[in-house]
Amino acid sequence: MPPSTEAGLSSVERALRMLEAVAEGPPLGATELAARLTTSKATAFRLARTLQANGYLEQLEDSRYRLGSRCLIPGARASSEIDLRHELREAVEDLHARTQETVLLTVLAGRFAVCLDSIPSTHPVVTVAQIGTVWPPHAVAGGLAILAADDELRDEYLAGPLTSHSPDTITDPSALRKVLVEAREAGYAVNHSYLRPGVCAVGAAVRKPSGEAVAALSVMLPELRLRVTGVETLSRVVRAVADRASHRLGRRPTTQAG
Questions:
Q1: In sequence order, what are the residues at sequence separation of 6 or more whose Cβ sits closer than 8 angstroms to the Cβ of residue 23?
Q2: What is the reported pTM?
Q3: Which domains are delineated in the chain?
Q4: Most CB atoms closer than 10 Å: which of 19, 202, 252, 253?
């Protein structure tokens, strides 16, 4: 094997070992990573910075590293959630046909919302999301809908930091709790430009027979079009399709308009 190939494989091995080391416990600094990998601190630092630049590691204020959000994507793609994507593809297509807006199928992975499926809007002005994209759950309709459906999950999430992503992102735990309670009572959640200014969404949870929310269907669109369509009108459609999707997974359907 050529030396360059060996070096390449060695770098890949070190990267995988570094990710495993960080995943095993609390955040680690460059010195600790070097010891775990039995390499120099300079090499460990360069490798950590490369992984950080690509989203596989995040650096804390004290310079230690923890797993980054991109580590969640391969797991989401390779797990049983892929089967869920196929199970709910018909619902995604149905919601898109009814609204002609961008439709998202979202699941939670730790403290991240992951886009499992998506169909873009047919309108000239569109908002899009690629499969595998990750978001903070408190800033997107799908994440909010799932958090609202599970009290334990909601409380656990509220105990952590709420990052800001736009001027309208809700970062106060008490305010977000109120929004989630209201979303649970209404049966749907609304993203009022929480992630990006001028981009809104309406989402509803998809549930298993046990009642557990395993995903959420949402419609994402510019704020101006949401004003024209109306939250109530759009939410009836989203809830109806999400309810039928839940029925497809074995949950008894609820009675609702739309």
A1: 67, 71
A2: 0.71
A3: 3-67 (1.10.10.10), 74-248 (3.30.450.40)
A4: 202
Radius of gyration of the chain (CA): 21
Residue 191 token pair: 């993203």
Sign of the C-alpha dihedral computed for residues 13, 19, 24 and 25 taken in this order: positive
In the chain, which residue ranges form alpha helices assigned H by DSSP? Answer: 3-24, 30-37, 41-53, 72-78, 81-87, 89-99, 141-148, 151-158, 173-186, 223-229, 231-248
Rounded to an integer, what distance in angstroms lies between the CA atom of residue 16 and that of residue 75? Answer: 15
Contact between 155 and 147 (Cβ < 8 Å)? no
Residues 36-52: tens digit of each pLDDT: 888 899 999 999 999 98
- 3-class secondary-structure state, position 155: helix
- Between helix 173-186 and helix 141-148 the angle, nearest 10°, is 80
Which tokens in the block code for residue 175? 């305010």
Q: Are 55 and 68 in contact (CB under 8 A)?
A: yes
pLDDT at 73: 60
Residue with tokens 């580590």: 71
The tokens for 66 are 């923890």
pLDDT, greater one: 215 or 69? 215
- DSSP code of residue 137: G
200: β partners: 192, 221
